[in-house]
Give the backbone structure.
Amino acid sequence: MSGYSFEISYGDGSSASGVVGTDTVSVGSATVSNQAVEVATQVSSEFLSDPDSDGLLGLGFSNVNSVQPTQQKTFFDNIMPQLEDPVFTVYLNISGKGEYEFGNIDTSKYSGDIHYTPVDSSSGYWQFDSTSYQINGQTSQNTNASPAIADTGTSLVLVDDEVLHAYYAQGKTRSPSHCCVHH
């Protein structure tokens, strides 16, 4: 796309920038033609140090897209109208092999009930209220909690101070010498 570029930074300090093109993007049977694709010409060392990473498929909402001069729609916003249900599911496995599915919920991949919560997409993220937490089966209220963000593209887990202190108060895990969790 002539004259288009992007520059993005992530919560873990990594960043990328470059040019923008278009291509047909397929994830399984979910296909978007003429999808804007950000082609990195510069990346931070965090990306270079991960030999298993070939790139990112951003599943946020279009209002977080960093393409300039005209913001572009994300893959998920483009694919939603084509899906039987406007959902995607993520199956993460400790072995490193995971799965994403678009448009349906595979009942063989979970047990119990699904609990739904409204998503606030105004900042471009899968953000929701998280007013309680559970540690070792004990549920506690945290009514003044910061909103939560579900993001499968990071290994960061950031929590409110109250949750952090409750977790370490159990004595099973050593408390860090310093902490940078803020409300």
